[in-house]
Amino acid sequence: MPLMYVNYPEGTFTQDAIDKLAMQFTEFGREAEKIPKTPYLFSTTFVYFRPYPKGLVFHGGKSGGTNVISLEVNALEGGLDAAAKKDLIKNVTDAIGEVTGLSEDQRRPVYVLIRDVPDINWGFFGKTIALNDLLTASPDEKPV
User: Fold this and answer.
1) What string of DSSP letters covers 52-120?
2) Start-to-end C-alpha separation, the chain
3) pTM of this structure
4) Are residues 1 and 35 in contact, defined by beta-carbon separation less than 8 angstroms?
5) Helix axis angle, 15-33 to 82-100, nearest 10°
6) DSSP 3-state assignment of 129?
7) pLDDT one digit per residue (tens) for the chain, 144 residues
């Protein structure tokens, strides 16, 4: 149940691209955490798209330069092993490259930061939640 924030310069994505990426990122997160694909568990991954004005990104202390896209992934500690993190970084970068028209041989200005959050620091519906709570959730649990 990753919580993801996509920060990007205004005008980078069309609404169709955002819709496509949101679904892809949700699936990538589920696959990375090896969580069963039930409607409830699928609904616990949240993806927020946050555009920013192009002039508010600074490289070397100056605005302008490359329009960087950053993705912050918050995941329950222990949910992503090293291989899953590498796959997630590659998958999201490739998906962004596809919708922005950047081929694999081009530099794709996508930064991915993955945070492993201890379950004591993760609240959901007023309670802390652990990875095992998700793995053992009833398949009939109502989606969020």
Assistant:
1) E-GGG-EETTEE-SS--EEEEEEEETTS--HHHHHHHHHHHHHHHHHHHT--TTS---EEEEEEEE-GG
2) 12
3) 0.90
4) yes
5) 170
6) coil
7) 799 999 999 999 999 999 999 999 999 998 998 888 888 888 889 999 999 998 888 888 888 777 889 999 999 999 999 999 999 999 999 999 999 988 788 888 899 999 999 999 999 889 998 888 888 888 888 888
